[in-house]
Amino acid sequence: MRVPLAHPDKFFIDGAWVDPSTSDTIQVIEAATEQPFYTVAEARETDVSRAVGAARAAFDEGPWPQMSHAERAEYLRAIAAAVDERVDDMVEIWPRESGIISAVVKPVMTEIPAAFTYYADLADRFAFEEAVTPTGSVGTTGAIVAEPVGVVGAIIPWNAPMTLIAFKLAPALLAGCTVVLKGSPEAPGAPYVIAEIAEQVGLPKGVVNVITADREASEALVRDHRVDKIAFTGSTAVGRRIAALMADRIGRYTLELGGKSPAIVLDDIDLAEAADALVGGTCFLSGQICASLTRVIVSSGRHDEMVELLAERFSRVKVGDPFDPSVQMGPLATATHRDRVESYIALGRSEGATLAAGGGRPNGLDRGWFVEPTLFGNVDNSWRIAQEEIFGPVLCVIPARDEQDAVRIANDSIYGLNASVFTHDTDRARAIGRKLRAGTVGQNGNRADFGVGFGGFKQSGFGREGGVAGLYPYLENKTMILNQSPNTSPDLR
């Protein structure tokens, strides 16, 4: 088994591969076989502090924040090219860490270089300095200058690490921030690849620092007053903890958290068409996607037909080895996570839902953390399986009296990350979409798009990632009021 990482036993800090402070390690287990894949160093608080110190010095004393945006953009373009060269390596790593089928890794990875290129292009298009006319009696001219927020702690989950790294790292670097990138114990491969790329493209020392840590050391990153901003993707429970810690010291943060996203199926849509889209989305990354459409809301008169069509399609999903080209869904990422998903399946049964498909482990797969794609019908939206994020291939079909009731059910959730309206009437989709409390609303499927901007309402998070909106959290506005217009051109760093 090839492990395409050069220094998994070290951390990348201050532009160099350094030894950890202890001999503690983390063993990464292959999700489909339960066999050891590789071992990485585990960061302790001392290592976290060292990485933060390097990022702090690089921001306060190094050349990176003093460069122009155009100069930093050239590094982003170099990173994009280097990521493109590592696609085959991620095909080896990603399916083994989290269970994504290898057939979709290359298509997904083609989007990563584009993220870095997009933010590089913003160097010429975004107004980092804007002239203003003072309204008071002091000063005759002024400007609003968008400056980097400072040192960023980027905390990455295990399900889609390379994508989530890109949409944190690219805007942070363009803005002029320095970064401590904290990989997850379950899937540290992508952060290590990024560390190797940072070294390859010659980023100034301390601009990007990469460590892998579990929760205790990760919390040290959040608590460290030298870190100006935390960018986190993960569970709502951890997000609440981060928000509380950052509030205590008035630190900046963005949180991309959980979801329990609704799909409203209107009466004009062909149910077979809707079922095809919903099953494909449920199986992607074994349902380990925060934006997955997990609550299917359909009129009560069409409920049974919707359940029947979904169940038939679920029964045909081939679950197995993610490297088998005929497989449509791989395993879950860890044994602990499978236990959690299975506990929710048991809960759904006890709450009174109709188990229409799945509910167990696939036959013939005695090793690996596999579960069957699972469908519940006749679900009441107040039940826990309809209210709590399962983060697995479990779909709930919820009957509604009418369109108004469907909207009410969709919004009856602590989450507000994603939603969809299934209809061929675009005006109707837009009208209903405006009533849904969700960060993204798509027509006829999951349309979550980091390239435009992604994030949630309510307890699905705070702030946005991707698009121009994804740059704002890495900037602080400074108002400058001057007595007269400066003789020099604006410095657009």
Description:
It is a single chain. It is built from 15 helices and 22 strands. It has 493 residues and is α/β, with parallel strands linked by helices. It has two domains: 11-257 and 460-482, Aldehyde Dehydrogenase, Chain A, domain 1; 261-443, Aldehyde Dehydrogenase, Chain A, domain 2. It has a seven-stranded mixed β-sheet with strand order 14-15-16-13-12-18-19, sandwiched between helices. A six-stranded mixed β-sheet has the order 9-8-7-10-11-21, sandwiched between helices. Helix 1 packs parallel to helix 8. The protein is globular and about 70 Å long. The chain starts with 10 loop residues before the first strand and ends in an 11-residue tail after the last strand.
Radius of gyration: 24 Å
What is the residue-averaged pLDDT?
A: 96
Largest sheet: 7 strands, mixed
- Broad structural category: alpha/beta
The shape, in one word, is globular
Low-pLDDT sequence parts: none
State the CATH superfamily name of the largest domain: Aldehyde Dehydrogenase, Chain A, domain 1
Number of domains: 2
What's the total helix number?
15
Q: Name the helicity range.
A: 25-40%
Q: According to CATH, what is the topology of the largest domain?
A: Aldehyde Dehydrogenase, Chain A, domain 1
Strand content: 15-25%
Report, as a whole number of angstroms, the end-to-end distance. Answer: 45 Å
Q: Give the strand line-up of the largest sheet.
A: 14-15-16-13-12-18-19
Gross CATH architecture of the largest domain: 3-Layer(aba) Sandwich
CATH class of the largest domain: Alpha Beta
Q: How many strand segments?
A: 22
For this entry, what is the oligomeric state of its chains?
A: single chain
